[in-house]
Amino acid sequence: MRTYVRSLCFVLYKAVSELFPDGKLYVEHPVSKGYFCNLRIGRTITLEDVARIKKRMKEIVAEDIPYHRIECHTTEAVRVFSEHGMEDKVRLLETSGSLYTYYYTLGDTIDYYYGNLLPSTGYLKLFDIVKYYDGLLLRIPSRGNPSELEEVVKQEKMLDVFKEYLNWSNITGLNNVGDFNLACEAGHTTDLINVAEALQEKKIAQIADTIFHRGNNGNRARLVLIAGPSSSGKTTFSKRLSIQLMTNGLKPYPISLDNYFVDREETPLDENGNYDYESLYALDLDLFNRQLQALLRGEEVELPRFNFTLGKKEYTGDKLKIDDHTILILEGIHALNPELTPHIPAANKFKIYVSALTTISLDDHNWIPTTDNRLLRRIIRDFNYRGYSAQETISRWPSVRSGEDKWIFPYQENADVMFNSALIFELAVLRMHVEPILMGVPRNSPEYCEAYRLLKFIKYFLPVQDKEIPPTSLLREFLGGSSFKY
What we know:
Elements: H1 2-19, E1 24-31, E2 34-40, H2 47-62, E3 67-73, H3 74-83, H4 87-94, E4 100-106, E5 109-111, E6 128-132, E7 135-139, H5 156-172, H6 177-185, H7 189-214, E8 223-227, H8 234-247, E9 251-256, H9 285-296, E10 301-302, E11 305-307, E12 312-314, E13 319-320, E14 326-331, E15 349-355, H10 370-386, H11 390-407, E16 417-420, H12 426-438, H13 448-458, H14 476-479
Helix pairs in contact: 1-2, 3-4, 4-6, 7-8, 10-11, 10-12, 12-13
């Protein structure tokens, strides 16, 4: 599907460059089961503009124009892109450190794409381009049913988060990897780290203030629900949020969903007959809700502790009673699922969605998938703390993603607030840690192709040491050196 999308983006760029020679196209990020694009033509985009673009794209597809890959010395590619005014690609290639590179042609249009393209435009049988807020949404075929387009899912809150961080990137002038690399070469790395960390802390403080002040309106939040996909930094976020809540005079208390698993023999099975611990129904929902309700009524409850060796809950005298200043913090993949807390009044819940929404791009037409960011985090964490090789983590990743699609992403827009845990400098820091781990993947293994792709991708970033990263950083959850206990 990535090859299909890249090839389609080239068709979009060719159509736009022909119809609006002075325009500027930015393929920014995936959203609403498609790809959000920003088209700057000096005025507001109209429905007529979109119709013209779509018509020209269909003509290009019908012409079945071949994609040609031109391999050359990097200096030659830089010269070609400079002549065409594509400075984003010039900066990327000049700072990549590669002696040789390539670019693509489609008729008389040139561009650079990270990865392979289809043989010709005639393969692009299914797509759509629609006006979407102040930009365009490039619609693509469904992964589950390639003969149909993905259904557009409204993700207004996620789009707002992307826009907020893109605005910050525009202010700093760091819109893509080439800009970032040049800033590092100029000695601004420490400033970038400090500003990015301060921006996240400011956002966490604002969320804590919102939770606290909502109580002034008679809708006191007693339960903070934090959800997000794998390696989004939920745990460190919950700890930093707890600190900010304490500055407001509240007493946060963490509740672990891991202690509410049903006994192992009652765990639902997946399609392969294995225990499905990611299923919502692997949790004792009845017990969990009864205890939550009792706590919110001011009653004392004895909390269970799940014995993973025996596969059942145990009670060891861990009792809890909360007062009016206590706020319960619940972090887990199902936290935003309405079925988890159906008996808790909505006014008593504050819901937060955390994910690493990468806002920096390789260049104007090559976005960085948020899944790649999270996978790199997970490879490092699994290697450092769980004893898993990169090969094992990559092998498990499709199953993890499948669980996210089923149990997490459908509920992300239920959040009161979304928090972006991605840091503009992090991929440069992750490079230092993940390269030797990825290089350990055997060449004859099924996971080698993915490991090679990730290695090639991460080399676009100039490496940055982690010594400047504070011990409270979200990145420390994966790299080590955190001042928090996990």
